[in-house]
Amino acid sequence: MQAIETIINRVVQTVGTLGALFLPLLMLTILLNVTLRYAFAIGSIELEELQWHLNAIVVMSCLAWAYQKDRHVRVDVLHNRMSPRARAVVEMLGVIFLLLPFLWFVGRSAWTIFGYSWALKEGSPMPSGLPARYIIKFVMAAGLTLLGLQALSILLASIRIVIRPAPSARTP
Fold this sequence. Notes:
Blueprint: H1 2-20, H2 23-40, H3 45-68, H4 84-120, H5 133-163
Helix pairs in contact: 1-3, 1-5, 2-3, 3-5, 4-5
């Protein structure tokens, strides 16, 4: 079980690190677009679409990494007061009954949408827009799949915590 967790965690961390490298490019694209639009009254469909695509790459490649590092938003106000075993139980239930079913339906739809887009060799509907819109649809489907893999890794880690025997009060 731990070997599978390690492999998934390494893949997620690598993809997340590579995705984070797109942030400076995204910032420069936004800066250029804003400067051209407000300083020179030049609008650019290509730059706007590039912003959307770069943002999608960053978000979808870093989503699983944020979950891995526990940097995601938690709704559970009692989380910090719980024992490690209780946290693991809550995490297991959340992954099994909420996250994985959600990712199954949304991810399956995302892969279907990518398949249609790929078959059509879909591009931007705008005449001056970016070609190959199917690439970004692949990134979105792959990001959801990566999040699903990370959910499985966290589920396995939670199971290990729950089934691990409690430390004995008596030492041999």
